Amino acid sequence: MVLSAPRPRFLRSISCLGFWARQLQQQSSGSVYSSIHGFSQEEIKEKLQAFPGGSIDLLKQDSGIAVLTINNPHRMNAFSGTMMVDLEEKVTQLENWTDGKGVIVQGAAQTFCSGSDLNAVRAMSNSQDGMKMCMFMQNTLTRLLRLPLISVALVEGKALGGGAELTTACDFRLMASGSVIQFVHKHMGLVPGWGGAARLVGIVGSRNALKLLGGAIKVDSELGVHVGLVDGVLKVDQESERAETSLQHAESWLSQYTKGPAPVIKAVKKVVLSGRELPLSDALRTEKDIFGTVWGGPANLQALAEQIQTQVTLSEFL
Ligand SMILES: CC[C@@H](C(=O)O)C(=O)SCCNC(=O)CCNC(=O)[C@H](O)C(C)(C)COP(=O)(O)OP(=O)(O)OC[C@H]1O[C@@H](n2cnc3c(N)ncnc32)[C@H](O)[C@@H]1OP(=O)(O)O
């Protein structure tokens, strides 16, 4: 079995859609590559295990917001091979998190992520292994973006190379002032390979993407907001003892969108996801199916009862 995680309910519920929806259905867990593309997830996992270091830490909170931390501070949170494997496992856990509503992706020790661990990249520089690592990371980051959770990349410090690509695998990006996102790939004689270019075009448009990649431009929070890459800037008051940390800021920012029961928030993400990824007719049919999962559900019935209650109280008053 190449990909063992169960398919999200969203994909299972698509029954009569067109070409693109069927494509999505075939992709177990929302992945892009599987055995039909000659790709073996297990084979590359085994190779990646030879490059240890760091960890990916997942904290699921009662609020329904999880915190995923890229943790390899001695290498500016660069991704070792085992961290790539770890990320895939943590994404599987998030796919199966029934009570989840949101996830914040952050780096440890006030920096975000400096991309691939260059030591691993050097050791895997033959093109076949490089391609397999790229397919593995595309699968994982595509699944991250397709989670039925609202996701935010919290960028403090530097997000470089693959780290910049990781930010594009979230629904939103928040930047602490003084931070930088930079697609440094051109300086390395490369282009993004973790799906970052395709996602960047979707976020900022092709002209801005060409500028950011072609110029390997350092994007600070101001430029990030200007081009539409960044959704909010966090200014942390380090003087005040009671000041919120960037993570606390990010949690309260995200909680604006995650108030309410998990099935409803998940449904919100799913209708947006289908609108983002599917042709209109297929997206409309999918939206209808997702609507069917919340129509008459507990939150819907409660909201209706409360409205009737309010109307009765009002009419008594009048
Ligand atoms: C496949 C390509 C692409 C992709 O996957 O899409 C990539 O991601 S390739 C990697 C792209 N990233 C980079 O090129 C960043 C390289 N690093 C730097 O430019 C700098 O280290 C920094 C991130 C700007 C930080 O600079 P500074 O604050 O001056 O700290 P140091 O340079 O001293 O770094 C501390 C420490 O961390 C090690 N480090 C940093 N990044 C990486 C990395 N990507 N891989 C491995 N190690 C990394 C750095 O070597 C230092 O280690 P020591 O010398 O042992 O202290």
Automatic annotation (TrEMBL):
Its main location: cytoplasm. Its EC number is 4.1.1.94. Decarboxylates ethylmalonyl-CoA, a potentially toxic metabolite, to form butyryl-CoA, suggesting it might be involved in metabolite proofreading. Acts preferentially on (S)-ethylmalonyl-CoA but also has some activity on the (R)-isomer. Also has methylmalonyl-CoA decarboxylase activity at lower level. GO terms for molecular function: methyl/ethyl malonyl-CoA decarboxylase activity. The lineage of its organism: Eukaryota, Metazoa, Chordata, Craniata, Vertebrata. The keyword Transmembrane does not apply. GO terms for biological process: fatty acid beta-oxidation. GO terms for cellular component: cytosol. This is Ethylmalonyl-CoA decarboxylase. It is found in: Cytoplasm, Cytosol. The keyword Lyase applies. Keywords: Cytoplasm, Lyase. It comes from Oryzias javanicus. It is an enzyme of class 4 (lyase). Belongs to the enoyl-CoA hydratase/isomerase family. InterPro entries: ClpP/crotonase-like_dom_sf, Enoyl-CoA_hyd/isom_CS, Enoyl-CoA_hydra/iso. It catalyses: (S)-methylmalonyl-CoA + H(+) = propanoyl-CoA + CO2; (2S)-ethylmalonyl-CoA + H(+) = butanoyl-CoA + CO2; (2R)-ethylmalonyl-CoA + H(+) = butanoyl-CoA + CO2.
